[in-house]
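Researcher: Re-running this chain for the archive, since the previous output was lost when a drive failed. Same request as before.
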Amino acid sequence: MKVYLGRPVSGELGPRALEAVQLAHRALIDAGADVLCERVADPEYRTGDDRPELIAEMMRRELLEADAGCLEASGRSTGVGFEAGWLSGRGRPVLLLYDADAAPPSAVARRPPFEQCVAFGYRDLMEIRPAVVEFCRSIAPPVGLRVKG
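Model: Regenerated structure tokens:
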């Protein structure tokens, strides 16, 4: 299963967003997912590092490849809402993580518009791993039907 990992890359990160993405990244790997967009979990990767054209090309390529999405939506970014909408609109399951101590700016995070889009507000960063693991369990194909590749 290929999971698109997202967070704002051209907008503003939430106060705990980077830590949350790093925890989600580790949980996805431990759950056996192939993680797309791993660069967003790198503490050296900063918003504004890439040109908008490069971001758009990377998003296009990796969104087309994704079976699901795990997005940190606490910050201000049009990209995260676009990614969630694109994946959900194509029937791909999406987990939207957001800092429950600060209202998420996106209406998509507050009230996901599709049933395969699930929002999870964390108050403690230690809540992220179990939420991601449960999301992976809920979207994994039955054992006899797993496809490699």
